[in-house]
UniProtKB/TrEMBL annotation:
Residues 6-74 form the HTH gntR-type domain. InterPro entries: Tscrpt_reg_HTH_GntR, WH-like_DNA-bd_sf, WH_DNA-bd_sf. The lineage of its organism: Bacteria, Bacillati, Actinomycetota, Actinomycetes, Propionibacteriales. SMART domains: HTH_GNTR. It comes from the Bacteria. Keywords: DNA-binding, Transcription, Transcription regulation. It comes from Kribbella lupini. This is GntR family transcriptional regulator. The keyword Transcription regulation applies.
Amino acid sequence: MFDDRSPIYLQIAEQIKNDIVTGALAEDEQVMSTNQYAAFYRINPATAAKGFAQLVDEGVLYKKRGIGMFVSPNARDLLRGGRREAFFSDVVDPMIAEAKAIGVPLPEIVRHIQKEEQ
């Protein structure tokens, strides 16, 4: 599950974000506790807690004292909005720049995309 490319706590946070974006975790749904998460993935509970704390700081999770962690009501929209911005800046903008560099007109790109939707 975890790789060596980034710290485990960041991978935990990213996995939970992916589960929210895909709908595997719904708004106001309880997530595993840090101890359950740590036991399930055989990692240090402090590592899991650090990933969860990051998600709380980002507004993706919220804590109910004595009960556990839950997905924030607006988490999916928040994450999707951030990913949309990243998609355009990381994927679309470089694609348009490359298309301009090699002489592909924007209408041709649009036609190609529309053809793929059918």
